[in-house]
Structure formats: C-alpha cells, structure tokens
Specification:
- One of its GO terms (molecular function) is ATP binding.
- InterPro entries: AAA+_ATPase (IPR003593), ABC_transporter-like_ATP-bd (IPR003439), ABC_transporter-like_CS (IPR017871), ABC_transpr_LolD-like (IPR015854), MacB-like_ATP-bd (IPR017911), P-loop_NTPase (IPR027417).
- The chain is built from seven helices and ten strands.
- It has a six-stranded mixed β-sheet with strand order 6-7-8-3-9-10, with helices on both faces. A four-stranded antiparallel β-sheet has the order 2-1-4-5, with helices on one face.
- It has about 240 residues and is α/β, with parallel strands linked by helices.
- Helix 4 (about 130-140) crosses helix 5 (about 155-170) and helix 5 runs parallel beside helix 6 (about 185-205).
- The protein binds adenosine-5'-triphosphate (ATP) and magnesium ion.
- Adenosine-5'-triphosphate (ATP) binds near residues 31, 51, 55 and 56.
- Adenosine-5'-triphosphate binds next to strand 1, strand 2 and helix 1.
C-alpha cells in the first residue's frame, strides 16, 4: 500500500477519528448528521456510544467499520486511512480485521450454529484445515458447545446473539462493532452477552465498540461517548 493511503495515529491506538462529518443528500436537501466527531479506540477496550434515537450512532458505527465514509474528516483504522480508500479496499480490510454484530442477530436461518460460524471462516478465506478447531473454540467461548447443531429457530434470543458473536469473532478481527446488541434481550440475557464480550476482550485481543440505550450495560464500559445531535457531549 502506498504512503498516501496509510494513516498515522498515536502509538497504541487501534482506530482514530478526527473531525468526522457526514452529511446526507435527500431530495436536493443537505442533512448534516455527524457534525465533527473526534474519538479513539485502543486495543482491548470496551467502548460504548449512547444517545437518543436519531443522534447518529449507527451512522458513526458504519463509518468506523468502513461501510460508509465521512463527508469530511479522517478515520484511520489499523494504519489504513478509510477516508482515502475506495469501497473494494475497505471491504477487503473489513473482511480481514473487523466483525459486526447487529440487533437482530443476522444468522443464516437454515444453517446450524456450527455452520453459521464456519461460514464466516469460509468467507474470510481461512484455511479449511483450521475451521474445525476455530469453530469449536468460538462456540465454547460463548458457552454454546452443546447447541452447535441447533438452527437459529431452535435457540433462544440470547443464544442466537451468542452465535452471532462467535460468528463475528471467528476470523480473529481486531475490532468488533455491535449496534444495540442487547436491545432485543431481557436483562439477564443482556448481561450474559456483556460477560461474553468481557471474556472475548480478555482472551481474543479485540476491541469492542457498541451502541446501547441501557444504563446498566453502560456501567461495564471502559469509556462511554455520549452523542447529542451529531456531536459528542463533553464528559
Ligand atoms: N442514508 C441516509 N440518508 C439520509 N438520512 C439518513 C441516512 N442514514 C441516516 N440518516 C439520518 O441520520 C440521522 C441519524 O441516524 P442514525 O441511524 O445514525 O441514528 P441512531 O442514533 O442510530 O438512532 P437509533 O437509536 O434510533 O438507532 C437520522 O435523522 C436519520 O434520518
Ligand atoms: Mg441506530
């Protein structure tokens, strides 16, 4: 990769965002949604984004993961300047280094828990010989070894979300992005998911950035960014 496409960030920083703005164009009208975001993610951190509906959390999370690019400003992940790269290059980085978890699990309905996790290794191009041990390890991490053969509809919501976590970390991403991963779960299952996140950070060398509305969940964060109308409130 040439020097122009790489980015500099402070040592020990996994991702840095500088002056990021995102404006959407709808029917000739410009809608500013992110209005100057500065943030940092360091290795092995659990960072949360909170804020009212419509404040811009999902828009920002999509940019952290390279699904979208800022209208203005910089996003540097793992030495890659996302704001300077095209779709294909960002997709390649995302496949290798980033995992996503959504509110509604996003599992393949006809595949078992095992096959869902295996699919992610297949997509990432991991050598076939490594699949079995890695799938087994990831399902064990989320406490679902005994449910490996179940399809999503044969699992509870919390179990489905834990399969989604196993799937998202199987290819050993450096960063996991989760958009309201506990919103569909009751408080006990939500707490289980958070315990799994803590375990993954401790053992898998990953940083997790997630959005949530739940005050009890915010308590376990290493850092919370509060978003108000496209900006972070000083904390
Ligand atoms: N593709 C788009 N085109 C136009 N406007 C958009 C687009 N995506 C998001 N927006 C607008 O940006 C604002 C922020 O949306 P976003 O989804 O980031 O909010 P959020 O904080 O995740 O809210 P919630 O808590 O409801 O999920 C909203 O007003 C939304 O209408
Ligand atoms: Mg959202």
């Amino acid at each position: 990769m040439d020097a122009d496409r790489t980015g500099q960030s402070a040592p020990g920083t996994l991702l840095s965002v500088r002056g990021a703005e995102r404006t959407f164009q709808v029917g000739g009208q410009k809608i500013p949604v992110l209005k100057g975001i500065d943030m940092e993610l360091r290795p092995n951190q659990l960072v949360m984004l909170r804020g009212r509906s419509g404040s811009g959390k999902t828009t920002l999370l999509n940019m952290l993961g390279g699904l979208d690019v800022p209208t203005k400003g910089e996003i540097v992940f793992h030495g890659h300047a996302f704001h300077k790269l095209g779709d294909e290059e960002r997709t390649a980085i995302r496949r290798e280094k980033i995992g996503f978890i959504f509110q509604t699990y996003a599992l393949m309905p006809l595949l078992s828990a095992w096959e869902n996790v295996e699919l992610s290794l297949r997509m990432a191009g991991a050598p076939r010989g490594e699949w079995k041990a890695r799938v087994s390890h990831c399902l064990e991490l989320v406490g679902l070894t005994k449910r490996a053969d179940h399809r999503p509809y044969e699992l509870s919501g919390g179990e489905q979300q834990r399969v989604a976590i196993a799937k998202a970390i199987a290819h050993r991403p450096a960063m996991l992005l989760a958009d309201e991963p506990t919103a569909e779960l009751d408080s006990q299952m939500g707490a289980q998911v958070m315990a799994v996140f803590r375990e993954i950070i401790a053992t898998e060398n990953v940083t997790i950035c997630m959005t949530t509305h739940d005050p009890t969940i915010l308590e376990v964060a290493d850092h919370v960014y509060e978003m108000v109308d496209g900006r972070f409130k000083a904390s």
